[in-house]
Amino acid sequence: MTERTSLLLTDLYQLTMLQAYFDQGMADTAVFEFFVRKLPSGRNFLMAAGLEQVLDFLEDLRFTPAELDWLTGCGRFHRRFVDSLRDLRFTGEVQAMPEGTVFFADEPILRVVAPLPQAQLVETRIINLLQFQTMVASKAARVRLAAADKLLVDFGLRRAHGAEAGLLSARASYLAGFDGTSTVLAGMNWGIPLYGTMAHSFIQVHDGEVDAFEHFARSYPKACTLLINTFDTEAAARRLVPLAKKLAGEGITIQAVRLDSGDLAAHARQVRRILDEGGLPGISIFASGNLDEHRLAELVAAGAPINGFGVGTRMNTSADQPYLDCAYKLQEYAGLARRKQSEGKATWPGRKQVYRSYGADGLMTGDVLTTTDDVAPGEPLLVPVMRQGRRLANMPVLNAVREHAHAELARLPVPLRALAPATAPYCVTLAPPLRQLAEEVDRRIQADLIMRKSRCQQTA
Questions:
Q1: How far is CA 332 from the centre of its chain?
Q2: Domain locations along the chain
Q3: Is the CATH number of domain 12-136+323-415 3.20.140.10?
Q4: Per-residue pLDDT for 223 more than 90?
């Protein structure tokens, strides 16, 4: 669990709109959906993540007395509106794709149905939570596909864009297939396995490198990983051989050595040779240092004898694609489907469902995006997760979400698992009922414009 988020951590226009809604008595049911307009360049798919934190936020939604006092005193809002916020709670319902589900452009992964002020107020934080974890999980899934079955550990906390980003990226990467994290709080919060080695400073504060190795190994006798490239990587590996044998005689196990600079493939080959010739084939090699899916793919393709990787900055910040072109948009209000018509940002109106089909081999063959009152072939992906402001069931444990994500990657068509853009994008079909609804909304908007224009001319 993360700490409660203040409702003042939002965009000003959410609150100014709420006051305008209050003044006009606009509180009918609104429907908003979160979706990605287009896949980032170089991505063949995205992976949904962040739902658990969204539901936490919605269940805890409330203004504190201190926040209300600030709103009263800031000079932007009148007292009657601020007083109306004292008992504000989320009372709506949510449908969503389960975390770990693979999805594509224009497909909603979350729908909020609630009184307009509630559904509007939560927009900024929902986008903030879903966009970030989905972005990181999608990057981490690509790293997992590139690494095959090698050990993957999240190393990115120190260069994440803030504490919450570091913590949630540990969660998102584990969800997408990483084996663990170095972020200790993620271990306490979600039971994510923790991995860690040592810093170069530990070596440097000792007068001798071998002394540092021995001291650390004696503190962690069951299994430890030693950083061997503070000075001379191959020389350190040679000095480690007699020490490892000595310690083994005392029941102390050196599990792995870590490399984090230089030509990782070349160093790994030399270290592997030294360890094997020294009778230590059981010591693994772990590597880190500015890694991403492309660098891992190169190392794996080159046959570098590396057993595991620590991946940090480039994954935790999704360095090549650090944002998603995503939106949380109104789809229905007061029983009428609504549609944004802005150039380049038009939306498909109404409440929608995504149906996914599979081939005889179990791989995904295509999706259908349609209205919720239509039934298309395949598996519906959005499911109810909250009603009357409360979850319908406990969220699945993170390991179960991780298993779902693993199954989703296994069901991706092979071209979509590649790091390079697929020559043929995944097929998402817009069903006729959805197109028909869009046409109806367009006609209604046009008729309303004509009527308003006529009224203006009559009163001119």
A1: 27
A2: 12-136+323-415
A3: yes
A4: no
Grade residue 179 by pLDDT with cuts at 50, 70 and 90: very high
CB 267 within 8 A of CB 301: no
The model's confidence at residue 460, banded by pLDDT at 50, 70 and 90, is low
Euclidean distance between CA atoms 8 and 82, whole angstroms: 13
Integer Cα distance of 248 and 386 in angstroms: 55
Cα-based angle 69, 73, 77 (whole degrees, multiple of 5): 95
Both tokens of 67, joined, read 């926040």
Residue 248 structure tokens: 């083994």
CA 36 to chain centre: 13
- Determine how β-strand 224-227 pairs with β-strand 93-96: unpaired
Residue 164's pLDDT is 96
pLDDT at 2 over 80: no
Of 115, 102, 32, whose CA–CA distance to 354 is shortest? 102
CA distances in angstroms from 28 to 22, 115, 118, 438, listed in the order given: 11, 5, 10, 22
Place of tokens 């609504």: 338
Summarize pLDDT for 18-32 with one digit per residue, the tens.
999 999 999 999 999
